Amino acid sequence: xxxLVTGGTGKAGTEVVRGLLRHGxxxxxxxxxxxxxxxxxxxxxxxxxxxxxxxxxxxNGVDKLFLLVGNVSDELTQALLTVxxxxxxxxxHITYLSVFQAERFPDVAHFIGKYTVETSLKAFGxxxxxxxxxxxxxxxxxxxxxxxxxxxxxxxxxKAGIAAIDVRDIADAAVVSxxxxxxxxxxxxxxxPDPLSGLxxxxxxxxxxxxxxxxxxxxxxxxxxxxxxxxxxWLAMDVRLMFQGYQERGxxxxxxxxxxxSLIGHAPRRYEDFAREMAAEWSK
Length: 284
Hints:
This protein is α/β, with parallel strands linked by helices and 284 residues long. It is built from eleven helices and eleven strands.
């Protein structure tokens, strides 16, 4: 069996590729980057999701597709075109990486875009599984300068707590959905047991780094203005709306946690362990 992975060079996609290879599955990774560094054993296919011919070529000889599309302005177009080409190629199964409880966030552009893709998949006969991960633990690896420097946790999680997940658990779920039976037509929200608040994250980093880390608790308007210095205006607003939605209605449910445990066969990884891993790596 051969599986095509899109988005296979990013945080989650790389772990999916590694997981499939460990399982003994043949993996092809579609990317625009000719210099991409792939795990040993993965096959490189150069192409672009906006170029249907390149997707068609990458799907040649492929049995299943893991579809991951990044948060870009034309994400919806990329995803729908790829699904259409996969249907034409008669792939046996698509596992689509969506986002946590996508239908509950109609005000967040990339959430409702992913929900549209879910709706499209359900409209046709091709077998599919939808994985809906919450906030990635690994997003916080990029916070090293402020965590280790001024001792600040800046992500605006609020004080109630939001759902989050380790990308390695996402990969475990993807591998199961692509290599075992019983997942066609299923949708799984992927969450760790403990909601992550700004205060709890700061406390976890304080322990992991053995220094005081404070929660920034920045108002969302100020947060959006701050990240506009790094990201395009549309993306900064989209991210701000995402965090606003998370604060209002982004907590995990025990049923989702229990379903994930049953799916991947082990307890989800904890944010505390991720923070300790990062702290040990940063100290080298």
